[in-house]
Amino acid sequence: MTRFLRNKAIRGPLVALAVAALLPVGLTAASSAGAAPPQTVTAAAGTTYPPAGEQARQPYMGWSSYSMQVYSPTGGGWITADQIEAQSDAMHQKLQPYGYEYINIDAGWNGGIDDYGRPVPSKTLYPDGLQAVIDHVHANGQKIGLYGIPGISKAMLDANLPVYGAPGCTTGDLAVQPLQKGDYWGFGYRIDAAKPCAQKYINSIADLYASWGVNFLKFDSVTPGSGVSDLSMDARDEVKAWSQALARHGIWLELSWALDINYADYWKQYANGWRIDWDVECYCPGEALTTWQNVARLFPKLADWWRHGGPGGWNDLDSLDVGNGTMDGLTKDERRTAATLWAVSAAPFYIGNDMTKLDSYGLELLTNREVIAVNQAGRPAQPVSTKTNRQTWYSLNADGSYTVALFNLGTTEANLTVNWADLGLDGSAKVRDLWAKKDLGQFASGYTAATVPPHGTRLFTVTPQKNAKVSVNDDDLRVSYDGTWQRNGNFEVPAVSEPLTVAVTDSSAAKSGATAKSTDAGVRTISVNNDNPEIVYTGSWSRSTGRGLGDYQDDVQYTEANGDAFTYSFVGTGVDYVTETHESQGDVEIYIDGALKATVDTHRDPAEGRGAQQVVYSIPDLPNGTHTIRGVKKSGQFMLLDKLNVRQESLLNPDTAAFDKNPSAQADVSVQIGRDPDELDGIAKGGKDLVKGTDYTVDGTAVTISKKYLAAQPVGSTVLDFRFRGDHHDDVHYATANGAGIDFAFRGTGVEWLTALGPDQGDADVYLDGKLVRRVNLANDARATARPAFTRTGLKNGDHTLRIVKVSGDVLRNDVIRYTTGK
To answer: Whole-model pTM?
Structure first.
């Protein structure tokens, strides 16, 4: 059975337990937890991050019942009063001293509604009342969470019940008309949150939860997301309504599941956390809680989502199921890798195991204070690159140290190296192994972890030493912005390379080959074969060669498991997914830059045979920049990848040339480049740089390759790689309104601001330690990247602040701030 079908077959009935009770049968005003009068409640002092307030400054730590509900043969019946109290006691004894505090009860806790359409707890699960369970949890010094979904049932509409504390409001008037499906499973209908009575109804439930002492609400089946991203279902208005209702009580709001990244700013505005993918559970009752595949698929998701997490709202990876090797479904190495990923991603650190049965290794993973401190620091890690299965992820901490995680996602052990330059660090640094709790020494330019096992990890703190320079990118949490700022928006320039192919011939020799014609630049298409090492395959993929079926380069990559995926990052303006179509194949979900764009059908009618090199998905007109395509298998026996076609703007005119080695015909080869000449970072052949001034010269936008260099090349094609600089990390933040500001605090002896220049930019004021020290002009005839705009050295070693304010021009860009450590 596929993961999707299991989800529908198992999760659905659990949710149905929570929904089926919403019927006009057996209505009772006597809730086992009591009914609450209307309240006027103000948010807690210091609230900054609605709805939970200051408690959402860090990711929460705790436990969720759901993994055990789908693992246990009793399913929804697992969340009895005795079981929840046993879990609370186990947390209190084993995990609470380390920061774990939430006990979250998932779907199936409610057993009816009262006379006002508000849920009441199940008397079967909680014969002494849910309030007794909540009181037990609170007595242990913990917090309690419950579960809900969007929408209102048809039965509730038909019952037309009065809304508590809201005279004249009834449940029959709350739905959008005509009726619209409200959740993934179709249990209810969308609430019209624009109606005042709808907000009052949601407020009445939030008030009831608060009167019970509820601290957390998981809001499931939120759209866009939850498998639906085309706005045919849209729960955003209900998310806002619940956020406003819960904010009156400081209750945490967590959204689920697989939220659409296109609406990340919306989720950040109204929620304290959001699930970024499907369930981590494998739906293997009695066998396992999860699988390695369900953990590994989170890496490409996080590569898109990491920058959206931060104080007030966190990227939720689902339950961390690493507490018991007999049920987790992971090896020891995989369990530690999962714990590392959750920690460095600053994801809510909640487990799904039966806490009464944690093994010694699980406790070791879950109670390492140094690893927990990484998670609670709230600095989501980013990847240096996801182009291979051996990855470095890092974050820059508030104290100037780095957290660095090395992941071996491959199938063989490997030595993994982190280079300080990839982190933005120029200088030496000390390294501490957090899992081993051991200092490893000081290293000049990087560190290599030896023989990291398959699916294994290493986790370090890297601390820059005296006079090291630390580069801080525009999207780092240490940089704060005042005013309206956005990232990229086609204001960025990515680093890119482009080949100039020179057809080298020798007319003085017989049969030296034809002379190639130069072609003008425009848009070029690059074919990326399925075996390209920069394509990252998640899951159980294999390569098939020599098929003789018309494949590009006579090979394909293939998989049989639903949920397996490929990911490829590229610079360009468009991409095609090219594959075979056949009766054995099915649907593939295509994501561009983390957003679901299409579900493509690669199935072919048996009567039509096999289709080779079929373009099953194509997207043009992307902003010229860095993008990611991801394909996920959803159905069919097989999913194949043959090649990807990437379209790029050409920066060379012409992009091909010819050279004749005959001494009487030799001539320099000249091309025009489409960027500022200072943006040309170098020219190389086969990884070896040509010598500027000798092998080539630059005069304005004209680049000339010397005939002496070309004469030394063999007859055939000589490929010269032109490298062009880009903005740091290929991105910028920008503002268009005068007065918009950038703020950065650092401890050290010097600071530099490197940013873009361009014809659309003007002046900016630079303040150091609160004093205006310079007005800089950022105008330039051509767009230029990473140019020094301000430098100050010789500062007294200590804490300093840098502030930059837009004065004039169409736009102000921020790229990177670099400071010098002084300790």
So the answer is: 0.85
